[in-house]
């Protein structure tokens, strides 16, 4: 029996996982070209799946996270289970 691959919009994942607190802000960050999925620039409407690696530029910092699970909704204390921070890098001017 084939396992169904669950996908979710990038902006929704960022909000539910609380990597970015608001969906409108997640959309802005994505549409400014500050997020990539597996090394490819992503828009807010790009679909993500378990195992994808996100790279998000927050000001002078780049956060790289791996998606562990996708959920339609989650409690605040469970949100960090949806991803693993692989590394954080400071970006020089």
From TrEMBL:
Gene Ontology MF, one: ribosomal large subunit binding
Keyword tRNA-binding (UniProt): yes
Family membership: Belongs to the RqcP family.
Metal-binding recorded as keyword: no
Complex formation: Associates with stalled 50S ribosomal subunits. Binds to RqcH, 23S rRNA and the P-site tRNA. Does not require RqcH for association with 50S subunits.
Keywords: Protein biosynthesis, RNA-binding, rRNA-binding, Stress response, tRNA-binding
HAMAP family with a match to the protein in the record: RqcP
Listed Pfam families: S4
SMART domains per record: S4
Cited function: Key component of the ribosome quality control system (RQC), a ribosome-associated complex that mediates the extraction of incompletely synthesized nascent chains from stalled ribosomes and their subsequent degradation. RqcH recruits Ala-charged tRNA, and with RqcP directs the elongation of stalled nascent chains on 50S ribosomal subunits, leading to non-templated C-terminal alanine extensions (Ala tail). The Ala tail promotes nascent chain degradation. RqcP is associated with the translocation-like movement of the peptidyl-tRNA from the A-site into the P-site.
Transmembrane feature ranges: none
Database matches in Gene3D superfamilies: RNA-binding S4 domain
GO biological-process terms attached to the record: rescue of stalled ribosome
Record protein name field: RQC P-site tRNA stabilizing factor
Residues covered by the RNA-binding S4 domain: 8-71
């Amino acid at each position: 029996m084939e396992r169904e691959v669950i996908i979710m919009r990038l902006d929704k994942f960022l909000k539910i996982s609380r990597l970015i607190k608001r969906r409108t802000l997640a959309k802005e960050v994505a549409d400014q070209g500050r997020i990539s999925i597996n090394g490819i620039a992503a828009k807010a409407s790009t679909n993500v799946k378990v195992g994808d690696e996100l790279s998000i530029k927050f000001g002078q910092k780049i956060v790289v996270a791996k998606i562990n699970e996708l959920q339609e909704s989650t409690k605040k204390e469970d949100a960090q289970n949806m991803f693993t921070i692989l590394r954080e890098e400071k970006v020089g001017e």
